[in-house]
Design goal:
The chain is about 15% helix and about 50% strand. It is of the alpha+beta class. The strands form 2 sheets. Strands 2-1-5 form a 3-stranded antiparallel β-sheet. It has a two-stranded antiparallel ribbon with strand order 3-4. About 5% of the residues are buried.
Length: about 70
């Protein structure tokens, strides 16, 4: 049986563009939340910039639909 839901999360992006921290803001279910956090940690972003150099600490809030299948 699959599970579908929208997960709101706060993420922090490191200087290398990798997601360093994920905090679930609105929980769907423990299983879906864990799968969403695991997926988001594999994503890459453009890091925040200061004086034309990448810096850690860019914080973003996102809402994405996730599906946890069999």
């Amino acid at each position: 049986e699959s599970m579908l839901g929208v997960s709101d999360a706060s993420i922090v992006v490191g200087a290398d563009g990798a997601v360093s921290t994920v905090e679930v803001l609105s929980s769907v279910s423990p299983e879906l939340d864990a799968a969403a956090v695991a997926a988001v940690k594999h994503w890459r972003f453009r890091p925040a910039m200061a004086c034309r150099k990448p810096v850690a600490g860019g914080t973003y809030v996102l809402a994405r639909r996730f599906e946890l299948g069999d």
